[in-house]
Write a structure and sequence with these properties.
The complex is a heterodimer of chains A (182) and B (370). Chain A has 182 residues and is α/β, with parallel strands linked by helices. Chain A has seven helices and six strands. Chain B has two domains: 208 residues, Thiamin diphosphate (ThDP)-binding fold, Pyr/PP domains (Rossmann fold), CATH 3.40.50; 116 residues, Rossmann fold (3-Layer(aba) Sandwich), CATH 3.40.50. In chain B, strands 3-2-4-5-7-6-12 form a seven-stranded mixed beta sheet, with helices on both faces. A six-stranded mixed beta sheet of chain B has the order 9-11-10-13-14-15, with helices on both faces. Chain B has a two-stranded antiparallel ribbon with strand order 1-8. Chain B starts with a strand and ends in a 12-residue tail after the last strand. Classes of the chains: A alpha/beta (182), B alpha/beta (370).
C-alpha cells in the first residue's frame, strides 16, 4: 500500500488518541508497519490534543506526522492549525458540528460529518471520535470494517468491554454516512 | 511467536523488564517516563514483586543499591532531572560493582527544562554518570521493539560485568506505540548465580561485603584498575550498531535513538534524489561502536551528525574520524525535533562540499505544541 500518514486533532477529552489507536491497530492487524505518537503534556486536559499515526509497508522512520495525507479535525483550532499542512491530493475528515463553516482548499478532498451531533442524537455519547474513524475508513478504504471492528475489540480496555458494541455502532454510522456538507 | 501487541515504548520496556526476571522496582514519577512506574505499580503486586514509589529519586536509587546487593534483578526509571538526582547512587553502585537497570526517558534540560523529547543527557550517560572513575553500559533503543529487546540484554550484561546499565530513551520513544513481540519470560532458576551477594547464608560461608569506600589509596586504585579491565572487555565484546545503506555511501549520517528514525527518513528522501547517503546508528552509546564506525572512514567522503542536543555524541564521532574526513553537525534541542526535510537540507549542503556546525535554525514547528 501507499504510505498513509494521518493526523488526528481536537480538544483533550474528545478521544483523539483513542481514535488514532483504533486506526493504528487496524493497520497492524492488516500486517503493515505502524506507529502511533500522541502529543503529551499540559495540553492533554481541555487544550489541544493530537496524535500522529503512520501506516506503511516499510519500517517507519519519523513517527511525527508533519504533512498528513489525512487530517481528522474535531474542532476549529485543530482544523485551522493543520489544514494547510495536508498534502495536495490529501483528505480532510471534519466534524462539522465542532468546526462549523470552514474555508475549503480546492486541492484536497473533504469528508465532513456532524459527528458530535450524531453521537448526541443516537445515544453514542463520547463516541464522536469513533464516528470520525468510520468516516476515515469510508474515505480511505485502506482496510475493512471487519478489521476495524477487531481493532475496536483490541483497543477498548478490559474494564470498558461493555462499550465495544456502541463503538462498533458508531463506526458503522460514520462509515455509512453519505451527506456531504461543510 | 506470540501475536504482536500494540504498546507504548514505556510499557513495552516495563513488561520486558518483568519478563527478564526483574521483580523489584523503585522509582518516582516524572514525565515522560511515568508509564513505566504506572505499569510496574499494576503488575508487580500480581507477580509477588515490589513496586515502591520512594520519597525521592535519591531514595529510590539507594533502594536499588540495597536490592542489588541482595542479589536480585532490580531497576529504577526516571527522566533527565531525576537521573541527575540519582547520579550519586549510580556512582556508589559503580564503586560497589552492583548491577541494576536504570532507565532515562530523556526530556529537555538543563534544570527542569521541558517535557518534550531530548537527547541532551548523552554526556551525562556516557561520560559522567556520577563522580569518580567509572562508566555504565548505555543502550540507545530506536523502536518500541528495541525498548523491549534491549532490556533483557541490559540485565544480562549488568550481571555478567557487575555494573549498572542504562537504557537511554527519550520522550518520543517512551510515548509512542508500535507493534511489539514481547520476549519470552526468563525462568527464575535460569537467572545467573550471584555468589557475591549479601543474601544470608546461615554461617555456611564467609560473609560478603558490598562497599565503595577504600581509605587506602592503593586498594582503591587496585579496585578501579580491576574494574577497568572489565571495561576493556566490554569495549572489545559489546559494541552494537546498525548500518543502513552505508556500503556505497559518500555521506554517512550518524544518529541514535529517536533522532535516528528522523535520519532514516532523511536518508530515504536523499536516496530518491540520487544522493549516496547512509545511516550509521549506534545502539550501544557506551561502549561507543567505534570499530564499526572506523570501518566506514576509508570510504566515506564526509559525515553529518544529527541529535536532539547542541552536539554531544558528535564529540565521539569526531574522536574516531579524527580529522580524516569532515564531520558536520545539525540539530534542534530543548524538545524541538528536527524534521526529515531539515536533515535532508543539511545533507544536500554536505553533498555540495560544505562543512558546518549548525546551531538550530527556526523550525516551522518550533513554538507549537505537538
Amino acid at each position: 500500500m501507499k504510505d498513509l500518514n494521518i493526523m488526528f486533532a481536537g480538544f483533550g477529552g474528545q478521544g483523539i488518541l483513542f481514535a488514532g489507536k483504533i486506526v493504528a491497530y487496524a493497520g497492524m492487524l492488516d500486517g503493515h508497519e505502524i506507529s502511533w505518537l500522541p502529543s503529551y503534556g499540559p495540553e492533554m486536559r481541555g487544550g489541544t490534543a493530537n496524535c500522529s499515526v503512520c501506516i506503511s509497508d516499510e519500517p517507519i522512520g519519523s513517527p511525527l506526522v508533519i504533512d498528513p495525507d489525512v487530517l481528522v479535525a474535531m474542532n476549529l483550532p485543530a482544523y485551522e492549525k493543520f489544514i494547510d499542512h495536508v498534502v495536495p491530493g490529501g483528505i480532510a475528515i471534519v466534524d462539522s458540528t465542532m468546526v462549523g463553516t470552514c474555508t475549503l482548499r480546492e486541492d484536497i478532498s473533504y469528508h465532513t460529518i456532524p459527528a458530535t451531533a450524531l453521537a448526541k442524537d443516537n445515544d453514542l455519547k463520547g463516541l464522536a471520535n469513533v464516528i470520525m474513524v468510520g468516516r476515515l475508513l469510508a474515505a480511505t478504504k485502506f482496510s475493512t470494517r471487519e478489521v476495524f471492528e477487531k481493532a475496536i475489540d483490541k483497543s477498548v480496555p478490559e474494564k470498558k468491554k461493555h462499550l465495544a458494541e456502541a463503538n462498533k455502532r458508531a463506526l458503522q454510522m460514520g462509515e455509512s454516512w453519505t451527506a456531504e456538507e461543510c | 511467536m506470540a501475536e504482536k501487541v500494540l504498546m507504548k515504548g514505556n510499557e513495552a520496556l516495563a513488561e520486558a523488564a518483568i519478563r527478564a526476571g526483574c521483580k523489584h522496582f523503585f522509582g518516582y514519577p516524572i514525565t515522560p517516563q511515568t508509564e513505566v512506574a504506572a505499569y510496574m505499580s499494576k503488575r508487580m503486586p500480581k507477580i509477588g514483586g515490589t513496586y515502591l514509589q520512594a520519597e525521592s529519586e535519591v531514595a529510590a536509587i539507594n533502594m536499588v543499591y540495597g536490592a542489588s546487593a541482595a542479589g536480585v534483578r532490580v531497576m529504577t526509571s526516571s527522566s533527565s532531572p531525576g537521573v541527575s538526582l540519582k547520579s550519586e547512587g549510580i556512582s556508589y553502585m559503580i564503586g560497589a560493582d552492583l548491577p541494576a537497570l536504570i532507565i532515562n526517558v530523556q526530556r529537555g534540560g538543563p534544570g527542569l527544562g521541558g517535557i518534550q523529547p531530548s537527547q541532551a543527557d548523552y554526556w551525562m550517560a556516557t561520560k559522567a554518570t556520577g563522580h569518580g572513575d567509572g562508566h555504565v553500559i548505555v543502550f540507545a533503543p530506536s523502536t518500541v521493539q528495541e525498548m523491549a529487546d534491549l532490556v533483557a540484554l541490559a540485565f544480562d550484561l549488568g550481571d555478567k560485568y557487575r555494573t549498572p546499565v542504562m537504557v537511554l530513551a527519550d520522550g518520543l520513544l517512551g510515548q509512542m506505540m508500535e507493534p511489539v513481540d514481547l520476549p519470552e519470560p526468563i525462568k527464575s532458576e535460569d537467572l545467573p548465580a550471584k555468589p557475591w551477594a549479601i543474601d544470608g547464608h546461615k554461617g555456611k560461608r564467609d560473609h560478603n561485603t558490598i562497599n565503595s569506600l577504600f581509605l587506602v589509596a592503593q586498594e582503591l586504585e587496585d579496585s578501579i584498575v580491576s574494574r577497568w579491565k572489565r571495561y576493556e572487555q566490554i569495549k572489545a565484546e559489546e559494541q552494537m550498531s546498525e548500518s543502513y545503506m552505508t556500503d556505497d555511501a559518500d555521506i554517512v549520517l550518524v544518529a541514535y535513538g529517536a533522532a535516528s528514525r528522523i535520519a532514516r527518513s532523511a536518508v530515504n528522501k536523499a536516496r530518491e534524489e540520487g544522493l549516496k547517503v547512509g545511516l550509521f546508528r549506534p545502539i550501544t552509546l557506551w561502549p561507543f561502536p567505534s570499530d564499526a564506525l572506523e570501518a566506514t572512514v576509508d570510504k566515506a567522503k564526509s559525515y553529518l551528525v544529527t541529535e536532539f542536543s547542541m552536539g554531544q555524541m558528535v564529540d565521539d564521532v569526531r574522536l574516531i574520524v579524527n580529522g580524516r574526513k569532515p564531520v558536520s553537525f545539525f540539530a534542534h534541542t530543548g524538545g524541538v525535533v528536527q524534521t526529515p526535510d531539515e536533515v535532508l537540507e543539511a545533507l544536500r549542503r554536505v553533498a555540495t562540499g560544505e562543512t558546518f556546525n549548525m546551531v538550530p535554525y527556526q523550525s516551522k514547528l518550533s513554538g507549537e505544541a505537538r
